[in-house]
Amino acid sequence: xxxxRKDTFKVVDLFCGCGGxxxxxxxxxxxxxAAYDNWDEAIKIYDNM
Length: 49
What we know:
alpha+beta; two-stranded parallel sheet
């Protein structure tokens, strides 16, 4: 897990699906502040991560 720095970029993932892009940003050290989607199945998968 990347260390949290004070100058970490914050990311909002729109139409996040199951969270793959968010996971990539998180692994690169970004701070995911929110993720949104309107597809119920994707939301269920993302909530279980």
